[in-house]
Amino acid sequence: MYKLIIFGAPGAGKGTQADLLAKKLDLFHFSTGNYLRELATKETQIGKKVKQILDKGELVPDDIMIEIIKEALENNNKQNGFILDGFPRTIRQAEELDKIFKSMNLHDIIVIYLNVPDEEIIKRLLLRGRSDDNEEIVRKRLSVYKETTSKVLEYYKTNNKKIVEVNGIGDIEEINNIIISKITKNYYI
Fold this sequence. Notes:
Layout: E1 2-7, H1 14-25, E2 28-31, H2 32-40, H3 45-55, H4 62-74, E3 81-85, H5 91-103, E4 110-115, H6 118-128, H7 135-158, E5 162-167, H8 172-187
Parallel strand pairs: 1-3, 1-4, 2-3, 4-5
Helix pairs in contact: 1-8, 2-3, 4-5, 6-7
């Protein structure tokens, strides 16, 4: 069973690679970004709150995200495992996710880190053309990533998680094949 977290800056290609991995390996793919963007379109109290947060380029509060992820993992019905895309983004979220994994008796989690330089990230996000991807918001999101989310990678390195680092620049399919090769070696499949 694959237990994967895909990690990297906004625009590193996490969603693209997670989609491919989910299809090829028959995994449950939970994208917090897609989930939150969908939530933000709803005229509910939480939907409006999430929309305001996303429009500013900020992170949704940990308590909300932790509940969302816990529920998603508990409702996963894929036998081959899962890939989390866009979570965790803070040390607290990583710690809480570890507690969720422990309570569900999930071990041998692999963190896939897509390494992409800042200028490539900015170029990709501006080309993507989503409403929350203007240059000011893109730079803010990259700044938030560096201040908060990049520290999660260090947390995982010091807490004995397997880190699979992959260069996120190049042909999408080639990058995906490299990821599959590296993670299958870790799972000895």
